């Protein structure tokens, strides 16, 4: 339901007591899947249900980091404004990109609208990853 946007199946699962924060083998939650498959309706429903908006997968990606990497301004806005996602949450030291934030991911893609949304949401422009690189450094990579 979270991948294809089927709201009926989603609501049925919720009504049957589904654990919306449960993760799969990769650490993806329902929110990760809904963001990755661009399902804004499901994302809104998950946020309304109170899921953990800052939960990271096994690679260290939060749903907001995925939205930034996938260049989705709509998803970033939903997660930051509606879901109160932590725009400065960094990937852990055992992750794919230790210390990187959603702004690092957005800068790497070159998507100015997503970068702007994150900065307006409070993202620190000079945050350094574990290698000392800022989002501006990532943009140049």
TrEMBL record:
SUPFAM superfamilies in the record: Ankyrin repeat
Keywords: ANK repeat, Repeat
Single GO MF annotation: ubiquitin-protein transferase activity
Repeat (ANK) residue spans along the chain: 26-58, 98-130
Residue runs in coiled coils: none
Gene Ontology BP, a term: protein K6-linked ubiquitination
Protein name stated in the entry: Uncharacterized protein
Species in which this protein is naturally found: Guillardia theta (strain CCMP2712) (Cryptophyte)
Source species taxonomy: Eukaryota, Cryptophyceae, Pyrenomonadales, Geminigeraceae, Guillardia
């Amino acid at each position: 339901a979270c991948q294809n946007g089927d709201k009926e199946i989603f609501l049925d699962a919720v009504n049957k007591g589904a654990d919306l924060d449960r993760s799969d083998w990769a650490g993806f939650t329902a929110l990760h899947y809904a963001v990755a498959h661009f399902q804004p309706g499901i994302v809104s429903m998950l946020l309304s249900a109170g899921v953990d908006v800052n939960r990271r997968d096994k690679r260290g990606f939060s749903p907001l980091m995925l939205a930034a990497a996938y260049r989705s301004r709509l998803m970033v806005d939903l997660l930051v404004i509606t879901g109160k996602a932590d725009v400065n949450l960094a990937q852990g030291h055992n992750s794919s990109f230790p210390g990187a934030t959603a702004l690092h991911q957005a800068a790497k893609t070159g998507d100015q609208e997503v970068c702007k949304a994150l900065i307006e949401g409070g993202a620190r422009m000079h945050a350094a990853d574990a290698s000392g690189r800022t989002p501006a450094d990532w943009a140049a990579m």
